[in-house]
Amino acid sequence: MRIGLDARITHYTHGGISAYVRNLAAALPALDAANDYIIFHSRQARESLAFPAHANARRANCWTPAHHRFERAALGLELLPHRLDLLHSPDFIPPLGNFRSIITIHDLTFLRYPQFLTADSRRYYNDQIRFAVQRADAILADSDATRADIIDLLGTPPRKITTVHLAPDTIFRSLPVSQVDAVLHRLNLRTGYVLFVGTFEPRKNIVGLITAYAILPPDSPPLVIAGNKGWFLDDVHKIVRALDLTSRVIFL
């Protein structure tokens, strides 16, 4: 089979979905030598998507930007010459086309908690999701909770959805104590802390985490918050100051 992977999102963001796509692009051709893979990425991409060379995988440029309002039709036209048998859309928006479609839905925050998204994001995802689940031949969900949401909120037949839990990146591994101590020293941290890693967005419930942490005694381990500094950062700092936690909450 000729299988396509829509990797355009890796040029535009560096969050969780991009990490997911990069790992798929690196691993799938190696694990599945029986099929041919085409990795579709943005024509603007330079080093945004690097993966080991495989005889059964190649890259192809796409002009259609991710999250464009005409994305379904435009990307479908771009893919026609490649004569795909199957396309995996890991950012869940499948294009029009006469190939089979697999999508990954990571969560349905925009339906469950619409107040946590911008108006533009809500509008875009709400316009796309129902087409996506109807167009897809199979749906992958990151968790059983997301699978239940797809069934409950979208009325999708359960047989169409498979839960595939995300594996950890190979960068997450045990390190020598000396290396750990050197990093702690560089960051001015002591052993023992509460760690949050993620993009600063309301839907990550960082405010809830900080509010709960404030209940702990003053001599509790520090709260370390690390990740991409999203548009919600200023509000997070305000909460920390309001709860008098500036000496106990550390931002990396």
Report on the architecture of this protein.
The protein is of the alpha/beta class and 252 residues long. The protein folds into two domains: 162 residues, Rossmann fold (3-Layer(aba) Sandwich), CATH 3.40.50.2000; 75 residues, Glycogen Phosphorylase B (Rossmann fold), CATH 3.40.50. 35% of the residues lie in helices and 18% in strands. It is built from nine helices and ten strands. The protein has a seven-stranded parallel beta sheet, sandwiched between helices. Strand 8, helix 8 and strand 9 form a beta-alpha-beta unit.
Structure characteristics:
alpha/beta; 3-stranded parallel sheet; about 250 residues; 9 helices; globular; Rossmann fold
Short description:
With 252 residues, the chain is α/β, with parallel strands linked by helices.
Question: In which order are the strands of the major sheet placed?
Answer: 3-2-1-4-5-6-7
Number of helices: 9
Quick check: average pLDDT?
Answer: 90
Q: Which regions contain 5 or more consecutive residues with pLDDT less than 50?
A: none
| Beta-strand proportion | 15-25%
Q: Into which percent range does the helicity of residues fall? A: 25-40%
Shape, please?
Answer: globular
Question: SSE order in H/E notation?
Answer: EHHEEHEEHHEHEHEHEHE
CATH top level class name of the largest domain: Alpha Beta
What's the number of extended β-strand segments? 10
Q: How far do the termini sit from each other?
A: 45 Å
Give the CATH H-level superfamily of the largest domain. Glycogen Phosphorylase B
- Derived from helix and strand composition plus strand pairing, the structural class reads alpha/beta
What is the CATH topology of the largest domain? Rossmann fold
Query: Mind telling me the C-alpha Rg?
Result: 21 Å
How many domains make up the 3D coordinates? 2
CATH architecture of the largest domain: 3-Layer(aba) Sandwich
Biggest pleated-sheet summary: 7 strands, parallel
